[in-house]
Amino acid sequence: MSTDFKDIMSKRTDEELIKIVTVDRDGYQSLAVIAAEEEIKNRNIDTEKVEQVESEIKAEIEEKKNLNDKTVNSLIRFVHFIIDVVIWWIIVYILAIILDTILGLSIPKEHQSLSAYVIIFVSFFCYYYIMEVTCQKTVAKFITKTKVVTKNGRKPTKSDILARTFCRLIPLDQISFLFTRNGFHDRLSNTQVIKDEKIEK
């Protein structure tokens, strides 16, 4: 058994070994911890590096805990859904009036339903994508003083928001947050919605 652990630990990175013998020590069998400690000695990893990596890991764990504490609950997500849907449909209505005024006579009747679907899809996509790329929030998030961040608390990239917006099209996505704080479009795009402390101060 100890031979197996030695083989396993020999394939771990320095950081993984240090994590095993420090912050994750209680989650491993004693033989596994001993094997990790022996591998650290074999690699001549000095105490200073062990302490540095341990400190970084603890800081990362604390940062994740703080981020989880700031993650908004399902009730607020439901409020977001209601407000944003209302805003979006107002945009759809305004666009429909404008386009009907400009192009109403030139669009054949058989194509009008297709035009309506295009307006609905494009306005939906643009509303969420443009708002969250530029502001990290939609109108609803401005009202509730929340914002979108990545799983590590950073500002999402355009590709993060693009993935997040596309994932909103998944069936039942809009009610997935009723069962978990992070809905489908959060989980699949590695983003989440947290309280915006800058606004609260």
Outline of this structure?
By secondary structure, this protein is mainly alpha-helical. The chain has helices at 2-10, 14-21, 30-42, 47-70, 74-103, 109-135, 139-144, 158-167, 173-176, 184-187, 197-200, and strands spanning 146-150, 191-195.
Commentary on this structure:
This protein has 201 residues and is mainly alpha-helical. It contains eleven helices and two strands, in the order H-H-H-H-H-H-H-E-H-H-H-E-H. A two-stranded antiparallel sheet has the order 1-2. Helix 2 (14-21) crosses helix 3, helix 5 (74-103) crosses helix 6 and helix 6 packs across helix 8. The protein starts with a helix and ends with a helix.
Q: What characteristics describe this protein?
A:
single chain, 201 residues, mainly alpha, 2 domains, two-stranded antiparallel sheet, 11 helices, 69% helix, elongated
Secondary-structure blueprint:
Blueprint: H1 2-10, H2 14-21, H3 30-42, H4 47-70, H5 74-103, H6 109-135, H7 139-144, E1 146-150, H8 158-167, H9 173-176, H10 184-187, E2 191-195, H11 197-200
Antiparallel strand pairs: 1-2
Distance between the termini: 55 Å
Mean pLDDT: 86
> How does the helix and strand content classify structurally?
mainly alpha
Percent of sequence in beta strands: under 5%
* Order of strands across the main sheet: 1-2
Outline the low-pLDDT stretches.
none
Oligomer: single chain
How many domains? The number is 2
| DSSP summary, beta strand count | 2
> Helical percent range?
55-70%
Shape: elongated
Number of helices: 11
What does the radius of gyration come to? 25 Å
Largest sheet: 2 strands, antiparallel
